[in-house]
């Protein structure tokens, strides 16, 4: 890293769950960060949490990334950076089925606007938040980056597939541009400081926030969606990745592109990496582990399968391990303790 442009990263959607954790890891690795976020699904208090952890203020611009003019004026013209991490997207699978146009409009427009401005301002590198949802239910497990994508079963998932394709074609057409798509498995947990974490609005869709809210007494009981799957205990298998480990993967991805750009490296300018632990964990195992490590009960009952759920998926992480030199480090128990510490802090428990 030499110039300040190379040391600065625009984090679009940086006030959200993964964006805040990534901002902390970037700053701790020596990068400067500018956060752009419209706060449509985040709160400014999350940025204050980041600032409390890193001990300094972080430039924040409240802007809708779909608004190209505003993004140009308020961000690209005012700050010099050579890398963007693009988190700015809606992520509620169920809502995307009910309101597909909202998802296509927002998730694609924000990406298109960021890419167009990157081209205009000669910004070279982008890390994109993709998802294991692009694999659907793979025939063979673990899923590798070569596992064929299946048509996503939600508009949310489709926006991730389309975004990957848009980025791939853009990188191919714009000399010097590089991109890394990180396919996240199931991100969970919170920063060990308990100053940042996941803040879902309304009833949580995802498992761990539902567990922590149930343990806190905010929800009466957890519904375990299905115990008759073809898995060891009948509940679904997922690959739960600690959000701090996931955040570190973004830092490594940015560094890789900055270094390759500086070195004028030839070769693949668009790369995909799975980011998971490589270990399948069932819903029931996760609930029991949470209870055990935190010494708290999570009342639960078995319910119907949730439409659209895949039975089992976990990551092959060899490519991220070998090429990025990234490994999931945090133990599941530690992650579930951090998730509970965050929930307790939010609830004042
Ligand atoms: C995990 C497991 C549920 C809630 C989704 C998106 C993915 C990513 C993460 C966005 C499943 C079970 C859940 C509950 C339960 N995107 N479950 N009771 O569906 O694997 O992935 O979220 O941010 O793209 O598809 O995650 O946390 O919703 O579910 O039994 O109340 O927990 O059936 O087996 P999922 P999840």
Characterization of the model:
The chain is α/β, with parallel strands linked by helices. Helices cover 41% and strands 16% of the residues. It has helices at 17-28, 44-54, 68-76, 93-98, 100-120, 155-173, 207-215, 243-262, 283-294, 318-324, 332-347, and strands at residues 8-12, 32-37, 60-62, 83-86, 125-131, 178-184, 186-188, 222-225, 237-238, 240-242, 270-275, 281-282, 300-303. It has a 7-stranded parallel beta sheet, with helices on both faces. The protein has a two-stranded parallel sheet with strand order 7-10. Helix 3 (68-76) crosses helix 5, helix 5 (100-120) runs parallel beside helix 6 (155-173) and helix 7 (207-215) packs across helix 11. It binds UDP-4-deoxy-4-formamido-beta-L-arabinopyranose. The site of UDP-4-deoxy-4-formamido-beta-L-arabinopyranose has 18 residues, from helix 7 and strand 8.
Question: Secondary-structure blueprint of this entry?
Answer:
Layout: E1 8-12, H1 17-28, E2 32-37, H2 44-54, E3 60-62, H3 68-76, E4 83-86, H4 93-98, H5 100-120, E5 125-131, H6 155-173, E6 178-184, E7 186-188, H7 207-215, E8 222-225, E9 237-238, E10 240-242, H8 243-262, E11 270-275, E12 281-282, H9 283-294, E13 300-303, H10 318-324, H11 332-347
Parallel strand pairs: 1-2, 1-4, 2-3, 4-5, 5-6, 6-11, 7-10, 8-13
Antiparallel strand pairs: 9-12
Helix pairs in contact: 1-2, 1-8, 3-5, 5-6, 7-11, 9-11
């Amino acid at each position: 890293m030499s110039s300040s442009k190379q040391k600065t990263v625009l984090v679009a959607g940086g006030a959200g769950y993964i964006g805040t954790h990534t901002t902390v890891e970037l700053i701790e690795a020596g990068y400067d960060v500018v956060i752009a976020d419209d706060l449509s699904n985040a709160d400014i208090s999350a940025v204050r949490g980041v600032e409390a952890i890193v001990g300094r203020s972080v430039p924040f611009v409240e802007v809708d990334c779909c608004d190209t003019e505003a993004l140009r004026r308020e961000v690209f013209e005012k700050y010099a950076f050579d890398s963007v991490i693009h988190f700015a997207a809606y992520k509620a699978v169920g809502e995307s089925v009910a309101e597909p146009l909202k998802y296509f409009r927002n998730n694609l427009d924000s990406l298109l606007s960021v890419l167009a401005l990157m081209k205009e301002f000669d910004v070279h590198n982008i890390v994109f938040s993709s998802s294991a949802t692009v694999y659907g239910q793979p025939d063979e497990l673990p899923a590798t980056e070569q596992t064929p994508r299946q048509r996503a079963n939600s508009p949310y998932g489709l926006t991730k597939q389309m975004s990957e394709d848009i980025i791939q074609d853009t990188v191919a057409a714009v000399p010097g541009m590089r991109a890394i798509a990180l396919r996240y498995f199931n991100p969970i947990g919170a920063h060990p400081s308990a100053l940042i974490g996941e803040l879902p609005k309304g009833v949580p869709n995802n498992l761990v926030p539902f567990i922590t809210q149930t343990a806190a007494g905010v929800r009466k009981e957890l519904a375990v969606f299905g115990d008759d799957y073809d898995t060891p205990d009948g509940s679904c298998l997922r690959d739960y990745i600690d959000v701090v480990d996931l955040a570190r993967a973004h830092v490594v991805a940015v560094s890789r592109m900055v270094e390759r750009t500086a070195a004028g490296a030839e070769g693949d300018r668009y790369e995909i990496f799975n980011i998971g632990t490589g270990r399948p964990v069932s819903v029931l195992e996760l609930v029991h582990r949470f209870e055990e490590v935190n010494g708290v009960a999570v009342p639960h009952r078995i319910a119907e399968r949730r439409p659209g759920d895949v039975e089992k998926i976990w990551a092959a992480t060899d490519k991220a391990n070998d090429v990025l030199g990234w490994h999931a480090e945090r133990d599941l128990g530690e992650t579930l303790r951090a998730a509970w510490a965050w929930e307790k802090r939010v609830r004042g428990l």
